[in-house]
Amino acid sequence: MKQAVHFGAGNIGRGFIGALFSESGYHVTFVDVAEEVINKLNAEKKYHVNMAQAQAESITIENVSGVNNMKDEAGVLEAIRHATYLTTAIGPNILPRIAPIIAKGIAARLKETDEKLYVIACENQIGATDILKGHILDNLDDESKAELEGTVFFFNSAVDRIVPIQEGHSLDVLVEPYYEWVVETTENIPPVTGMTIVDNLAPFIERKLFTVNTGHAVIAYLGSLAGKSTIDQTLADPEIEEQVRETLKETGAYLVKEYGLDEQEHLAYINKNIERFKNAFLNDGVTRVGRAPLRKLGPDDRLIRPATQAQKAGLPYTHLAKAIAAALAFNNPEDEDAVKIQEMIKAGGPASVLKEISGLAEDSEITQEVIRQYEAL
Ligand SMILES: NC(=O)c1ccc[n+]([C@@H]2O[C@H](COP(=O)([O-])OP(=O)(O)OC[C@H]3O[C@@H](n4cnc5c(N)ncnc54)[C@H](O)[C@@H]3O)[C@@H](O)[C@H]2O)c1
Ligand SMILES: O=P(O)(O)OC[C@@H](O)[C@@H](O)[C@H](O)[C@H](O)CO
Fold first, then answer.
1. Which of 5, 7, 12 to mutate to test the pocket of ligand 1 (most atoms within 8 A of CB)?
2. What is the pLDDT of residues 97-131, one digit of tens each?
3. 164 close to ligand 1 (CB < 6 Angstrom)
4. What number is the ipTM of this complex?
5. 2-198 architecture in CATH?
């Protein structure tokens, strides 16, 4: 049986990427530190992906197993040795931590076989696979590095499926029915159900990140300020829905200009995503969607990059500035990033966060607009 090894047996791992490999006839070895999940995968050998919709629909995912990378290095190396695909859905900040064991697995594999291995990071981050590749190269000896060419391939990708935090301890995963997985390559690669191949990912990842994730972030941060707990409850407020639409018009104007997108088609894409956010069956928390605001306020992420790009292009960004202000105000004591931001604000004011985390000069027009909005919140 064909083999895939997937790092991160969480929501996207089990509910999306691992599930597609299983459906495509692969055995999937999940690598994770969550002992309970790994034990269950090995004991139960299957789970269900359940659709968040009125009509019950469930897919059984079989041919799965798990390895704990903290306890069983040999098991991880063995899984890498036999894999055709190596994927991750682990969170962008964790990629550097798993790179050493992936490098070790690749080095060992290169000594035994020249069969092709395709590495794809499935994270909400522009160029995530390139970043992972950089960390892997930092951990590889020169001999292995020289052998990578033509044998180990690295493809960037964009992943889109809303998967909330799961209730209870079952392996089953509740997901929205919609999904899109876009992979950038010009190689002829083994088919995977549900994978769309493109030769230029930039318009796809930016369209996704600056529509789905920007819109999501606006709802999460405004919802949190308004004391709401879920995305759909927050969006039931017409003023917040209007703010989401106006923000996505701003990111949309940039995307249309940058990538020559059809304006009407892009508007339909925005509308479709706002309907996805309204899915009450997902019960998706504002704390999950707003998680890790230090990452979300990064220069290339869903809030800052569309604002800086809009400003460069002479396009409006005031609604984006309000979203950035709301992100700065995200006050969740259980979120390490949010706690750090509140401490930074106390010590140096909100402009210090924008300078240090977002790379925006204190006297920049965007910073000044964000501060105006922050004070008005
Ligand atoms: N959930 C979504 O709706 C969604 C959609 C698209 C993309 N994404 C992206 O997918 C990625 C994963 O998100 P998620 O929602 O599945 O998160 P998640 O928290 O459900 O899953 C992450 C998994 O990684 C594991 N992990 C953490 N550190 C590890 C380590 N050092 N070694 C091995 N395993 C480790 C965790 O135990 C967890 O099982 C993120 O980049 C996210 O932005 C999420
Ligand atoms: O995963 P994050 O933290 O980058 O973003 C939170 C959500 O916006 C995200 O997980 C979406 O649900 C997902 O990107 C939809 O495809």
1. 12
2. 999 999 999 999 999 999 999 999 999 999 999 99
3. no
4. 0.99
5. 3-Layer(aba) Sandwich (3.40)
